[in-house]
Specification:
It is a multi-pass membrane protein. InterPro entries: AA/rel_permease1, AA_Transporter_AGT. Keywords: Membrane, Transmembrane, Transmembrane helix. Its main location: membrane. Pfam families: AA_permease_2. By secondary structure, the chain is mostly helical. It is about 70% helix and about 0% strand. The protein has 21 helices and two strands. A hairpin with a 2-residue loop joins strand 1 (about 135) and strand 2. Helix 16 (about 375-400) packs antiparallel against helix 17 (about 415-430). The protein is globular, with a radius of gyration of 22 Å. The termini are close together. The model is unreliable at about 1-10 and about 525 (pLDDT under 50).
């Protein structure tokens, strides 16, 4: 097996030894539960409210759009996970396909995205504030609330410390609860207080225009809420028969989660009291949306279940998030972005414990400045979309370099990959200037970090690495520029929908350049 020039090879003795310590014990059921649990977390508790505030009833369309995007990107991930199973594979594939500059920039985004688990911890404490108001006040965690979230992060890390079998068993049990309570919520809200007129009254179906549907995708937490389907792929190195189990787990978890989210959004829209709509959908405000609706509809027992599930659902997602993030950090160490010591897999548990400890520190850092759920998820959603964007390029590079290795699960990959790239780019742009002006400069810190790392180890040709990865740097800089000029919190120099069309045209122009750079500059990647 030959690795990309300058890329760590999966056949490297040190990497191979650590990869061999991973326990291949997860089947379709366990992997699907991991995907579903990672998707359905705090998002179901809050996203319906925030999406309705931004887009009104048209938020329903945002969930459909998010589901379609995830399905497209998932097909790319399915192909990669089935043919190139590896622990933390989503972090490794951009490196194999596009070199160390791309691998470093994407790696920085993944490392920052570790903070997304902080959103789940914030959601738990926010709902606990219903009983303990000193934990949550004025739309953010109090000092004691931050302390509680920090203690939760330590507990979840400890539960992940003892191996994948225990992890899979506990997560499957939690997933059952995470299905039953949201479904019961939809049924009871629709049966007790659903008003179909809310879908057209109070400004119509799209009171803030259809452009608000796009803003709701990131700003309303929808992208964040549907995100997480890649989790089974990151466990592909621990899966039995990944060519069969990974596709079934990824696609099955997406279908189940999107249907659940759609039901919750519709139920929320119809159950909101008329008194809360006096100032329109933008004026609707609940600290604990479904819990307060249940109380308003005299569903006291449902309210009690919801406040209990407010710990279970985001707690389950955070539990999976800690495990996934550990695989990401483990893979970043294999990529040499982090010290190789973090790549060590504990021989007894089969878990990368050192990587887990580092991630705990990152979660703590994110909890301190970001004390609200929406503050965290709007930025974190963007970070994850960069991972999907790079995966689309990697899939097409591998398809051209090694067409005989295709799994057969994704016919038409040559068309699906650029479409996935296009929509990932659009979703990043639709996040809005307020989020991108923070997220993209942070990610671009990967460029000087790449230069520093290259000067240290001098692996590969600097000129070749720059040629391979220049497309990503150019892509992010252009997106930052267009966002500043565009209609999504920008200067509105480029009005809608022309700004989105221009972004789409740019994406379709840069994609073949990115692919050619990987095919031309890189030799066949390691398996």
């Amino acid at each position: 097996m030959t690795a990309a020039p300058g890329a760590p090879d999966a056949s490297d003795t040190e990497v191979g030894a650590e990869e061999g310590r991973l326990r291949r014990r997860l089947g379709v059921g366990g992997l699907t539960a991991i995907g579903f649990s990672n998707i359905v977390g705090s998002g179901w508790l809050f996203a319906a409210l925030y999406a309705a505030q931004i887009a009104g009833p048209a938020a329903i369309l945002a969930w459909v759009a998010a589901g379609l995007l995830c399905a497209l990107v998932a097909l790319v991930m399915v192909e990669l996970g089935a043919t190139r199973p590896e622990g933390g594979g989503t972090v490794r594939w951009p490196l194999y396909a596009s070199g160390r500059l791309t691998g470093t920039v994407i790696g920085v985004s993944v490392l920052l995205a570790v903070g997304a688990t902080s959103a789940e911890l914030t959601a738990i404490v926010q709902y606990a504030g219903y009983y303990l108001p000193w934990l949550y006040s004025d739309d953010e965690l109090t000092g004691w609330g931050v302390v509680a979230a920090l203690l939760l992060s330590v507990v979840l890390t400890a539960l992940n410390w003892f191996g994948v079998r225990l992890f899979g068993t506990l997560n499957t049990a939690v997933t059952v609860v995470k299905v039953v309570i949201p479904v019961l919520t939809v049924v009871l809200l629709v049966a007790s207080g659903f008003d179909g007129g809310h879908l057209t009254d109070h400004g119509g179906f799209a009171p803030y225009g259809y452009g608000a549907v796009l803003t709701a995708l990131a700003g309303g937490g929808i992208v964040y809420s549907v995100n997480g389907f890649q989790a089974p792929v990151d466990f592909s190195g621990e899966a039995r028969n990944p060519r069969r189990t990974i596709p079934l787990a990824v696609l099955g978890s997406i279908a189940a989660a999107v249907l659940l989210y759609l039901g919750l959004q519709v139920a929320f829209l119809g159950a909101v009291p008329d008194s809360a709509l006096v100032n329109g959908w933008s004026g609707v405000n609940f600290e604990s949306p479904f819990g307060e609706l249940a109380v308003a509809l005299n569903l006291g027992f449902l309210a009690a279940l919801l406040y209990a599930d407010a710990v279970i659902s985001p707690g389950g997602s955070a539990y999976v998030g800690v495990a996934v993030n550990a695989r990401h950090t483990y893979a970043l160490a294999k990529n040499r972005l982090l010290p190789r010591a973090l790549m060590r897999v504990h021989p007894g548990s089969g878990v990368p414990r050192r990587a887990m400890a580092l991630n705990l520190a990152v979660m703590v850092v994110f909890l301190l400045p970001f004390r609200g759920w929406q503050d965290i998820v709007s930025v974190m959603g963007t970070m994850y979309l960069l991972l999907y964007l790079a995966a689309a390029v990697a899939a097409e590079v591998f398809r051209r370099r090694e067409p005989d290795r295709l799994s057969g699960w994704v016919p038409g990959l040559r068309w699906i990959a650029p479409i996935a790239f296009l929509f990932s780019t659009e979703f990043i742009y639709w996040s809005g200037w307020e989020d991108l002006r923070l997220a993209l400069p942070l990610v671009l810190l990967g460029v000087p970090l790449f230069a520093l790392l290259w000067r240290t180890d001098r692996i590969g040709s600097l000129t070749g690495e720059l040629r391979r990865g220049a497309w990503l740097v150019a892509h992010l800089l252009v997106l930052l520029l267009l966002s500043g000029l565009g209609s999504f919190d920008g200067a509105d120099v480029l009005p809608a929908p022309w700004d989105s069309l221009l972004v789409g045209a740019w994406a379709l122009a840069i994609f073949p350049i990115a692919v050619r750079s990987g095919v031309r500059e890189t030799s066949p990647a390691a398996s």
